[in-house]
Amino acid sequence: MPKCLVLLHEELVAEIASTAVKLVKANPNLEMVLLYAATPQESVPSLPGVGWLVQEELGRQFQLRADEVIGGALAIFRAAGVGARSLVLAEEPVRAVERLVASDPDYALVVVGDWGTRSRWHYVLSSEVYHLSHTLALPLLVVKTPG
To answer: Angle CA(121)–CA(124)–CA(127) in degrees, nearest 5?
Structure first.
């Protein structure tokens, strides 16, 4: 069964998940794999006065953020009556996508989110999405939101 890898972005969970639901409804044979990938340091809020964190707290913050993002996406899938697998990886998202796609020939599509730049050049891709568009041998669907 062909798989679709959906890279979730914290700020675009609803948009990405809604697009993925439309894809799987149009192609019921597509297995959806929801991926949350980030370095643990990215999951810690950057607040004034936040100092050093012990490794256990860093891991806990990462898991809390991952559960929130994956949970939001799964709720959209459940509401639509669609199933999906979830995967959480503590690594840089672009590398995670490249590694997963290279390790499993069943992946047929990758879905990512991008908001472009915050100026009149909002149609420009972020560097991560640009990199994936040039390195993946699979189709890449970019879900963009207005900047």
So the answer is: 130
User: Hey, how many other C-beta atoms are within 10 angstroms of the C-beta on 25?
Assistant: 12
Which is nearest to 5 in space by CA: 135, 98, 72?
A: 98
> Which pLDDT does position 42 carry in this prediction?
63
Mean pLDDT for each 10-residue chunk of the chain (147 residues)?
93 93 94 92 58 66 92 97 95 94 96 70 68 90 77
Residue 140, phi then psi, degrees to nearest 5: -125, 120
Q: What angle do CA 141, 10, 91 make, to 5 degrees?
A: 85
The domain limits of the chain are 3-144
Instruction: Record the pTM.
Output: 0.85
Give CA separation, 28 vs 81, 105, 112, 130, in Å.
12, 19, 20, 29
Nearest to 104 by CA among 34, 21, 2: 2
pLDDT of residue 127: 78
Contact criterion met (CB below 8 Å) for 33 and 85: yes
Q: How far apart are CA 97 and CA 86, in angstroms?
A: 14
Query: Which CATH code for domain 3-144?
Result: 3.40.50.620
